[in-house]
Amino acid sequence: MKSIVKPRECTIGGVTYSLRFTFDAIDTVEEEIGRGLVLGMTIAEINRPPLRLVRALFRACAMEAHPDLTPERVRQIIASPQGASAAWGGCVQAYVDGMPQQDEEQKTKKN
Question: What is the value of pTM for the model shown?
């Protein structure tokens, strides 16, 4: 399923990846980690996510634009603390980008 949300670019090791946080990505990650993602995360996990979660989410968010991205390749990409941090930051930004935004008209009606 294609997303209408513009992809978030994430550069790791000089390579730029396009990430989208979609329902398909959520489903893929939940299946891989064996539990809920959005409501099942603790504050501690958001601040210091397990490496398994970072790798699973990065791969799931990148699959639309990079379908040949294998788990082994993701391990190579996210092989350092800097790579993990960049991947997690990109996924978090892709999540924020995918959330519905209020248009200006809705904002003014509330005020």
Answer: 0.82
